[in-house]
């Protein structure tokens, strides 16, 4: 079911580990308002996996998505080079897709890494960050005006 990309291809073992880690992370989600738990698991080039879940807030805009939680955890531990991220939710009929803000945060760390969008049964589709956010704005764009 997966669509692979040469620059970010993972072996089945890593994919399964990421999917399971994202499903496990989803269990920690704090989502009393939306009741829409999401988990994410981020694989770095060094082989570490950082998990994250969505954390909502009564002041709605202050909530944070699972993908950004995982990325911020990785960056706070000195990791900035990513191979893949898996995202999990309870959606049965659709693959969970990252929101626009998460896509932009992913893009900050490159465009050629994999995003595994899953269903609870473990099936997934995979796209690169570039495919999810084409014609994007990134760090090099800021250098164009200097």
Order of helices and strands: HEEHEHEEHH
Give me the count of strands. 5
Structure classification = alpha+beta
Distance between the termini: 45 Å
Proportion of residues in helical segments? 25-40%
Low-confidence stretches: 1-6
Strand order of the largest sheet: 2-1-3-4-5
State the shape.
globular
Number of helices: 5
For the biggest sheet, the summary is:
5 strands, mixed
For the CA atoms, what is the radius of gyration? 15 Å
Strand content: 15-25%
The average pLDDT value, as a whole number, equals 94
Question: How does this structure look, described?
Answer:
This protein is α+β, with helices and mostly antiparallel strands and 146 residues long. It is 29% helix and 19% strand. The chain contains 5 helices and 5 strands, in the order H-E-E-H-E-H-E-E-H-H. A 5-stranded mixed sheet has the order 2-1-3-4-5. It is globular. The termini are far apart. 36% of the residues are buried. The model is unreliable at 1-6 (pLDDT under 50).
């Amino acid at each position: 079911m997966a669509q692979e990309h040469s620059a970010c291809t993972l072996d089945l073992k890593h994919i399964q580990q990421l999917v399971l880690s994202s499903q496990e992370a989803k269990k920690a989600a704090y989502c009393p308002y939306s009741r829409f738990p999401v988990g994410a698991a981020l694989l770095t080039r060094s082989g570490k996996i950082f998990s994250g879940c969505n954390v909502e807030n009564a002041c709605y805009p202050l909530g944070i998505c699972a993908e950004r939680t995982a990325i911020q955890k990785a960056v706070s531990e000195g990791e900035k080079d990513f191979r893949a991220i898996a995202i999990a939710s309870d959606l049965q009929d659709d693959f969970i897709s990252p929101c626009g803000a998460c896509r932009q945060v992913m893009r900050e760390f490159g465009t050629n890494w994999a995003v595994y969008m899953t269903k609870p049964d473990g099936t997934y589709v995979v796209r690169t960050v570039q495919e999810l956010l084409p014609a994007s704005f990134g760090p090099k764009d800021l250098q164009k005006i200097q």
